[in-house]
Design brief:
Belongs to the small GTPase superfamily. Rho family. By secondary structure, the chain is α/β, with parallel strands linked by helices. It has a single domain, classed as 3-Layer(aba) Sandwich (Rossmann fold), CATH 3.40.50.300. The protein is 35% helix and 22% strand. Strands 2-3-1-4-5-6 form a 6-stranded mixed beta sheet, sandwiched between helices.
């Protein structure tokens, strides 16, 4: 039974995960909420996850919205922005298009539907850099970079991601690998911290709610 002036209910925060299709958003969510990495890619239309965590001693219930990055879902995706506290905007380090779209597509869409929301930029699939390092070490330094990478495009560096984060006004720039489960919890923890400082327009004041007496 809640006591007067207090509440046992966790703070509720909504985080929308945004970014190009196949950049790794659903894998990131699966590892964080369910503890496993999916081996087969299945495009997401929309899915909602609920996950409870503690942030700086506060109980927080996260409502995590997985969205479809494909263009054909643009109109449907706009329905997910209501009452959002934070957006985790994702790109894959092996897709320069996904990083370019952060600036040319996603930030504009956020401004249209969710202006002023807290923004966190997240680089995904960072374990691929380890493979790149191995390939570079085993190649002759005299070879062109394109040959050193076996014809693949150069992966996006930390510095490049950080530069884009500054340009788009992200509060945090985070890097992780869902496949190796590295940096996943940290990414959501930082996003949740940002969400705790946010109050979307029209959202209820939770402190005022919790201060009311409840008679049982």
């Amino acid at each position: 039974m809640p006591l007067c002036g207090s509440s046992v209910k966790p703070l509720q925060r909504k985080i929308v995960i945004l970014g190009d299709g196949a950049c790794g958003k659903t894998s990131l969510l699966n590892v964080f909420t369910r503890g496993y990495f999916p081996q087969v890619y299945e495009p997401t239309v929309f899915e909602n996850y609920v996950h409870d965590i503690f942030i700086d001693g506060k109980a927080v219930q996260l409502s995590l919205w997985d969205t479809a990055g494909q263009e054909e879902f643009d109109r449907l995706r706009s329905l997910s922005y209501n009452d959002t506290h934070t957006i985790m905007l994702c790109f894959s380090v092996d897709s320069r298009d996904s990083l370019e779209n952060v600036q040319t597509k996603w930030v504009r869409e956020i401004a249209d539907h969710c202006e002023g929301v807290k923004l966190v930029l997240v680089a995904l699939k960072c374990d691929l850099r380890n493979n790149e390092d191995v390939n570079n070490d085993s190649s002759s330094p005299l070879q062109p970079l394109s040959k050193q990478l076996n014809g693949r495009k150069r992966l996006i560096s930390y510095e490049e991601g950080l530069d884009v984060a500054k340009r788009v006004g992200a509060l945090r720039y985070l890097e992780c690998s869902a496949k190796k489960n590295r940096g996943v919890n940290e990414a959501f923890t930082e996003a949740a911290r940002c969400a705790l400082t946010a109050r979307p327009k029209g959202a209820a004041n939770e402190e005022e709610k919790s201060s009311k007496c409840t008679v049982m």
